[in-house]
Amino acid sequence: MKKPRPFPARPAGGERRCSISAHGGVHPAHVAALWPQVRDFVLSAMRLGYDEFYGEDDIRDACSAGAMQLWVACGETAIEAAIVSRIVRYPKRSVCQVPLIGGRRMRHWLPAMQTMIESYARENGCTHMEGAGRLGWCRAAGYRNIGPVLMKELSS
Length: 156
Hints:
This protein is of the alpha+beta class and 156 residues long. Helix content is 32%, strand content 22%. It has one domain (18-134): Gcn5-related N-acetyltransferase (GNAT) (Aminopeptidase).
């Protein structure tokens, strides 16, 4: 299975600082250092059901290993959102899943972050984006609703 291409180790022009309203992907080598600033955003997104399958350490470790990608949206003085994506290779196509989005002031960062993540997905051979969440995300992100996600716990 082809591993996604990592983000550049350092953005052009040096380190990104939230004081310049930067948005972008976090290189796996920088995830641990940035984690304290994005942790609450990731955990709030996980509480919507993802925490039944993954713990905080699982997400942080997957982002640090490059198996998942951590994205941050910065406002004028602080990080406003954290997004986690991953490239999934199905037999017929590759998709970029976005299982976790946590943040505030979405209207300020969603268009730029969506453009960035979709560009990253195309660069990694993806033909589709995939996500699950409230129906409001369909409108906000331009996705189409293909049906509910169904789940049943199996008894032992």
